[in-house]
Tail fiber protein (Pseudoflavonifractor gallinarum), 334 residues
Amino acid sequence: MAHTTEIMVNGILTQVTEFDHSAQDIDDAVDALNGAKTPQEALANLGAGVRPSRIVNGGFKENQRGKNSYTGAWNYCFDGWVLSSNMTIEKSGNGDIVVSNTSASENGYLIQRIESPLFDVVSTFSVVTNEGVFCATGNMNSVSHDGFSESTSFGSVSVEWDSSWQYVSIGLRAGQSITFPTSKGVVAKFEDGLNQTLAYQKSDGTLEPIPQPDSKPGQILAECQRYIYSPFYGAFPTAPIGTVFVSNQTTGFVVVKTPVLMRTKPVFSGDPSKLWIVKSNGGGAQRPSALSVMGMSGCGVFLSVTASFEDGGQYIMYSEDISNPSDFLLSAEL
């Protein structure tokens, strides 16, 4: 800090600025930050909290569909992320994520839609690959919906708008492949502000992640479960689903409790034949032929179950042969 004082110089009253800290004080402050040369490095050295991200699963840790690799057809893959045609994404042996464009002529994209669009303020979308940190910074206009983009060695990073949603996009040119070092931490972030707070480059050229405020495993999973939930994710046989209340000889109802309030009424997808229904006294084991979502109240999703029931009976639905979390998915994705 500094302040202004008045002194006499050759009989003339003159204002001068005096600094409250000496050059040595400033040097000592820099040393206390371990010689940080960038704002990002200073944050990391301080262990300071940084701005939260507006996207979920920026480290690709949550994967409730349960596959180690996906082929794109504008479909969801790792929680929150959509993969375009001609694209593949897979988890390598060390936990890093490899994304490839298999087309010889077309661009490919990995995108995530934003539930609460960010307009008329400066924002930054940044990604970390094995080649470095790549950022796009700009201001999306709420009227024209003009986005912003930055070219990269592999393609582009951008924030864009389609007919309904704002989304962040990682574009790969034909034949390109990139690796996200997810074994080190979060690799994609969309945040308010001019500068990225995701990672910095050390003096030896290696990338170092900055501690993120929303990177605890339980917190990441809870954020993802707002959009998609599988009771089979992380489950072990035998996995209970819920009590089935009988309506008539072919229809029953079950309430599935979700860990968090889902974004909206979800849709069921999966394989009902992976489930068992058994009477509460242990008899009459059978497989349901169909499941569908009827409604939602708080953290309870109400499903209709098609099977053969006895009037007035009470049944339990469970699985004892879990093969994949995608066998039972409730999706409220964007």
Summary: The mean pLDDT is 87. The first strand starts at residue 2 and ends at 9.
